[in-house]
TrEMBL record:
Membrane topology: Multi-pass membrane protein
Similarity comment: Belongs to the UPF0761 family.
Transmembrane segments: 29-52, 96-115, 136-160, 180-197, 209-230, 236-269
Pfam family, one: Virul_fac_BrkB
Cellular component terms (Gene Ontology): plasma membrane
Protein name: UPF0761 membrane protein IPH26_15845
NCBIfam families found in the cross-reference section: yihY_not_rbn
Domain of life: Bacteria
Compartment list: Cell membrane
The keyword rRNA-binding is annotated on this UniProt entry: no
InterPro entries attached to this UniProt entry: UPF0761_bac, Virul_fac_BrkB
Predominant place of localization: membrane
């Protein structure tokens, strides 16, 4: 690959990334997550403390997790103060009334649903899972995540310390290893987030790429943020003892932006790889794509095999995210379904689907006109033209594809 082509590819990728960032309004989502995270911080810490304090064997895990968070996920200036007051607030959580407990629980739920909506928009998820299922998954992450993360940090640190002590490595090697461990843990955590949370198929290498880039940006942000606070103590001069709060808010906002950027990279990579294989946008693309998908599934029915989402996206020359949305619309119409292996197949024979039904589904349907507009003159004319066109589009898809 020449330097010019590499530059063009990089520019194209950045263009896709910026377009998706603006379309999803990531800066607004990050601001919303900043506020809800600030409100949900105390109940989250309370849950973690209950888990660790209820079992003495987890004391080492809790200590390892607290050290990891303070050293790697919080700004240096505000980390100690935030940890101090969060601990005090969480210890007072036991004195809350039932109403106060419900309000704290609601803040956690709002935070989780905001994250879920942002990821659905970034990954073009047309049909998110049910709310109860999503909350159960996220609550499992909240309750089990601290245990697994703390255990991993404690175990890895112990193994690394023991092995380095046995082989008597130089101090430089030890320093590099222990500096690399936090980066590895953050990468694994973000990769899991990008791979498991979206309600669609995500390639592990794409999630890993997004996780690595976000972790690198996170490490740079921590260093630059700490340097800025140390060299330009504006917040401290203005806010005095309360400087930790605005520092923490800015840190949360920037951190959430980086998390969303990693998700954007994961989502955009498949579209970028396809390049010229994706047909350019044109009027009626959804109708044409639906017909291509249904024709391919008709061939699959004759072959006695289903088709994967990736195969259908290639056949219809669509990005995988766009094809996923199209497939969900076709499934809602009860024209296609998934088999036990997750492959797509026809749910109806092609001779039972009329071309006018496809046009009504993806273009114009009289049923979509509001009731208060039925008497409008333009509406009546459109309805008449639609009825005339429907007669010409009454042939079945089996006749169209033969």
């Amino acid at each position: 690959m020449s330097i010019r082509s590499a530059f063009d590819s990089s520019r194209q990728f950045l263009h896709l990334l910026i377009d998706r960032f603006v379309a999803v309004r990531c800066e607004q989502v990050a601001a919303s997550l900043t506020v809800t995270t600030l409100l949900a911080l105390v109940p989250l810490i309370t849950v973690s403390l209950v888990l660790f304090s209820g079992h003495p064997v987890f004391d080492a895990l809790g200590s390892a997790l607290r050290g990891f968070l303070l050293d790697n996920l919080l700004p240096q200036k505000a980390g100690d103060v935030i940890a101090k007051y969060s601990l005090q607030f969480s210890q007072n959580a036991g004195q809350l009334t039932s109403l106060g407990t419900l309000i704290l629980a609601a803040t956690v739920v709002i935070t989780l649903l905001t994250i879920d909506r942002a990821f659905n928009a970034i990954f073009h998820v047309a049909r998110p899972p049910r709310t109860l299922r999503r909350l159960l998954v996220y609550w499992s992450v909240i309750t089990l995540g601290p245990l697994l993360l703390g255990g991993s940090i404690a175990a890895t640190s112990y193994i690394a310390s023991a092995s380095l002590g046995l082989i008597n490595e130089p101090v430089l090697v030890r320093s590099l290893l222990f500096r690399a461990l936090p980066f590895i843990f953050v990468t694994v955590l973000l990769t899991f987030l990008y791979f498991a949370v979206p309600n669609r198929t995500i390639r592990l290498r794409d999630a890993l790429t997004g996780g690595v880039v976000a972790a690198v940006l996170f490490a740079l942000l921590q260093k630059l943020f700490g340097l800025y606070i140390a060299r330009f103590p504006t917040y401290t001069l203005i806010y005095g003892a309360f400087a930790s709060l605005p520092i923490f808010l800015v840190w949360l906002y920037l951190s959430w932006n980086l998390v969303l950027v990693g998700a954007l990279i994961t989502a955009v990579l498949p579209e970028f790889r396809w390049g010229s294989r994706v047909a350019p946008p044109f009027p009626g693309r959804n109708i044409f794509g639906a017909l291509l998908v249904l024709r391919e599934l008709g061939q699959a029915q004759r072959d006695g095999r289903g088709r994967s989402s990736h195969h259908l996206a290639v056949t219809s020359r669509q990005a995988e995210a766009d094809c996923e949305q199209l497939l969900e619309h076709l499934r809602e119409a009860a024209w296609i379904a998934r088999d036990d292996e997750g492959a797509w197949m026809l749910a109806r024979r092609l001779d039972g689907i009329a071309l006018r039904d496809v046009f009504a589904r993806f273009s114009f349907s009289p049923r979509c006109i509001p009731a208060d507009a039925i008497d409008d003159v333009l509406t009546q004319r459109l309805l008449g033209l639609h009825e005339q066109a429907a007669e010409r589009l009454s042939l079945s898809l089996a006749e169209l594809f033969d």
